[in-house]
Amino acid sequence: MSHMSMWRLDKTYHSWTGERIARHVLYWLGWLLFYTTINGNYHDGQYLDWMYVELCFMPVKLVYVYFVVYYLLPNFLFKKKYFSFFFWAVLLATLSAILLRFIDVYHLRPLLFDLPPYPIFNPKMFYKVLDLIYIASLPTIIKLFQRSITQEKDNEHLVKQRLSAELQLLKNQLHPHFLFNTLNNLYGLVLTGDQHAPDVVLRLSNIMSYMLYECDVDYIPLNRELDHLRNYLELEKVRYGERLDLSFEVAGPIEGRQIAPLLLIGFLENAFKHGAAKDDRQAWIRVNVWVEEQNLSFKVENNLPEVIDEKDTQTIQSGIGLQNVRKRLQLLYPDRHELLVQKNQSFLIHLKLQLQP
């Protein structure tokens, strides 16, 4: 038996183990010694007599306390039936106090103190009621504390489950969209017999391997995520050819840094979807990555088509891709990220993030 675990108030049990029984025995032994000492000191050291008194009272106290803790608590207080709980707790304390008075008046006083019986219902009975409520209050508080801890743990578990489910959903939404675009690019290259087709197949293979086998974790090395972005950009360069001016710059120490997988690709997809894909002119995209200590600065800027209707303007700033990224940032990096989205002559996304060490 672990002495430390035995005294942990937040520890709960699902069966009557030896440790659990020992805790209850020690609890009642403590009350027995407490009342024996208090009354013995007050009555000229008659400790054995008062220990016998407490042993006679103990069955009534046990029944009352365990009825409160194991019946009234779960059936009334935990279900927020507060009036019913307090009504029954006080009523049963009163009935138990009457029983204690009977034991005291008709058994203990004549036997131990040679005193005649006196009226059951007198002010002392009120103190017996308070005494019973007092004894039951400590285990009640402990049970409430344990319930609070258990609910907190359950809530944390539910939050983690919801987080995992939402992240998986977001990833599932992202993969088909990305693969659809890439396969369309490859299909066009194969039809025209373009010499870049083998390189596209290799990069697509690397991308699929990354998404299928490496992204099923909470965090991944930053350099692998950046390799994934490079592969994606190279595929898009093949697709748009000379009419796309693309730059990708990385600065700072990226080794040893961790980031959530597939977190940044949505920004690039958004830049192509609402920039180069809708503009037949010369298009440009600038991607800059800076790492300083554990801070990442990720900036994506792209030109906008000459003509943008109101619907396109709304889609650019609140499309599914950006919504997904915003959700993932809120779930994975609460209070550890800053996302700036600006639309003027160009469209700019600037993400500041505290990376995992």
What does this structure look like?
By secondary structure, the protein is α+β, with helices and mostly antiparallel strands. Helices cover 65% and strands 13% of the residues. The protein has helices at 3-6, 18-42, 47-77, 82-113, 123-192, 197-214, 222-240, 265-274, 310-318, 320-332, and strands spanning 220-221, 244-251, 258-259, 283-292, 295-303, 337-343, 346-354. A hairpin with a 2-residue loop joins strand 4 and strand 5. The longest helix has 70 residues, at 123-192. The protein is rod-shaped.
List keywords for this structure.
Heat Shock Protein 90, alpha+beta, 357 residues, single chain, two-stranded antiparallel sheet
Overall mean confidence score, pLDDT:
81
Helix content bin: 55-70%
- The dominant shape is rod-shaped
**What would CATH call the architecture of the largest domain?**
2-Layer Sandwich
Largest sheet: 5 strands, mixed
CATH superfamily of the largest domain: Histidine kinase-like ATPase, C-terminal domain
Oligomer: single chain
Radius of gyration: 36 Å
Biggest sheet: strand arrangement: 2-4-5-7-6
Beta percentage is 5-15%
| Beginning-to-end CA distance, first to last residue | 39 Å
Q: What is the total tally of β strands?
A: 7
- Determine the CATH topology of the largest domain: Heat Shock Protein 90
Secondary-structure-based class equals alpha+beta
> What is the helix/strand order?
HHHHHHEHEEHEEHHEE
Number of helices: 10
CATH class of the largest domain: Alpha Beta
Could you name the ranges where pLDDT drops below 50 across 5 or more consecutive residues? Answer: none
Number of domains: 2
